[in-house]
Amino acid sequence: MNAKRELPAKENAIFKNILRNYEHKQYKKGLKLADTILKKFPEHGETLAMKGLFLNNLEKKEEGYEFVKKGLRFDLTSHICWHVFGLLYRSDKNYEEAAKCYTHALKYNKSDMQILRDFALLQTQMRHYDALIETRTQLLQAKPTNPPFWIGVALAYQLVGKYDIAIQVLEAHESALREQSVNFEQSELLMYHNSLLEESGDIEKALEHLETVEPKVCDKRAWKVKKAEFLLKLNRLEEAETAYRLLISENPDNYSYIKGLIAVKGLNADNLTSEQQSAMLKIFDDIQSDFPRSTAARNLPLNYASGDNFRNRADAYLQSALRKGVPSLFVDIKRLYSDSAKEKIVEELVTGYEVSLEKTGHFNEEQDEKVVEPPTAYLWTLYFLAQHYDKQRKTELALKTIDKAIEHTPTLVELYMTKGRILKHGGDLEAAARVMNEAREMDLQDRFINSKCAKYYIRNDKIEEAEKILGLFTRPDAASPLQDLTDMQCMWLTLEEGDSYLRQGQKGKALKRYHTVEKFFSDIFDDQFDFHTYCLRKTTLRSYVDTIRFEDNLKGSHYFVRAAVGAVKAYTSLADKPSGANGMDEANMSEAEKKKARNKARKAELKAQKENKPPKKEQVKEEAPKKVDVKKPTDEDPEGEKYLKTTDALASALEWVRPLEQVAPKHIQTHLLGFEIYLRKGSMLLALKALVQSWTIDKTNPQVAKNIARFKEAVSANPPANADVKAVIDSQLATLA
């Protein structure tokens, strides 16, 4: 043992209080106690380390690191010093270095429970599941009476796919539990056990277990759903039908229950014969007769009906929705437009409604004359038709129809929003933004319309106006509307601004926005850290496993894909035509010209800052009454110059594509982006691989055809020297042809 580590009894008691202060988050009090020890023992490593930990939590990060490193120098074999160093790295999200520190700490104290717990959390976060099994097992052996330790071991085995061992661990834990009244924790544990049996592939055993635990399960709905699924998988169709009909009786608008019943009947929705179609529609008719208010029973048949049958069902569904005034009717119906025959029928029906309602006030001539439709039925019919024509890109007709609707009811906000959307699709972005602003001014308390209006201004490259509009709903004490929305991880705004700056040629600002989105995803991934402990304590195990698997595929989100598309465009543009930090093209400039241009840009920037800066006296007068203690974050690189100064633009672009290759290999954009980078880098085999995969996903994509031609041109210009490589390329190109 290090001789300098030993403290007298009085100071040793103070050091124990320091540890308690950290556990209770009393950082200032702990800092004072640490100073009392260091006055007498300035080289006591563990106290120095704890002082550094307190300073780090008091937002004095640099000082904190200095004290912890100093403590380590004085006591290199202290598990406390290494543990504290790991906690500092963990707070900075530097998990690799934190793991190294925990490994060192365990060298000097293999059985410290807190270090083992922290190490297990870190291993879960880093997805080091094999090492996690070992750590969780050590915790369980040290304290087998702690239920979360048993669950932790089972989870670790599940995450590596060893379901049989995970089940054995849970069974051992359940056998040791005392008989309790029905409670949520026990219920969740049993349902988690059942999910392990399901994942192991033993559905028969899973169903048997489900029947056994039914009295102890609180989540009855989840229990019934699982029972129905298991019966269907085991081909016990009569029992499965009973189970699904029970679920439908409880919620007749749940699409998954109805689709489960269809599966029980052995009907393949993709390829129906006329007899099967009749059987399918009879299922919906039966549900509708039993549950007349079920929207799903009237909506879903439209997917499977055809001809006159479809016309009759669509007629009833459309009339009911237009009579009630359902604004989302077209959004609901447009899925049917993939079938041109159904699209034509819908158009015939609704145009007929328009003519008939305008003349007679009825949906059609066959309707009882005594029954008069509400005036709004005509309005919503026009609204539907305008969206219908817009979908067909008949812009003039769509505008004429929506103007007729506005003339009928000039106070309905949705009409102006739809008109703005039609103008946007027609290519008139300025008029679209103007009309959307009219809609916003009609209801200044609606945040959704406010956001829509701002988006249309950004699409028209009027970013400053958009931010002013958004500022109406942001915190008044925020540094700026953009900063407030960035703090709230508002992805759509960040992406729209990035795309706008890219259109304007301001690549630095565009890249800054795309990298902000990338940081959002990193923060979301980091935010799961606290749940590794919480979910074991609260026994929310099924949701926890779902969350871990969701986080593993987080960057497959369309938001990240869209950011990657923009970032790769910007970086490949930089690689094709290098520009300086000021955005000027320096490729064809001499060194003297480059220097002169940079100096000119710097002087212009200083002049602009000077002009915008108020006079000194006025500044003092304005700032005097405003005493704000809160430190507002300052943007040190508003132009995104650091991204423009990248030494290897293609390598920076590749950092965006690699996560997509892992989590979104079936997304065509992944391979289209990869092709752009690999072709420029001269990695012909990788470019060919990306080309083949994009062609496999969607051979009709026009960009794929262009890429094939570009690849052939590149190979012709620089034929591969290696005969084997040439043979592979020729073979694959023949396949693509």
TrEMBL record:
Keyword field = Repeat, TPR repeat
Q: Does the keyword DNA-binding apply?
A: no
Q: Does the keyword GTP-binding apply?
A: no
Query: Domain of life of the organism in this record?
Result: Eukaryota
Q: Where is this region: Disordered?
A: 576-642
Q: What are the start and end residues of each TPR repeat?
A: 79-112
Query: InterPro entries attached here?
Result: NatA_aux_su (IPR021183), TPR-like_helical_dom_sf (IPR011990), TPR_rpt (IPR019734)
> Basic and acidic residues: which segments have biased composition?
602-642
Q: Which GO terms describe its cellular component?
A: NatA complex
In Swiss-Prot or TrEMBL terms, this protein is called Uncharacterized protein
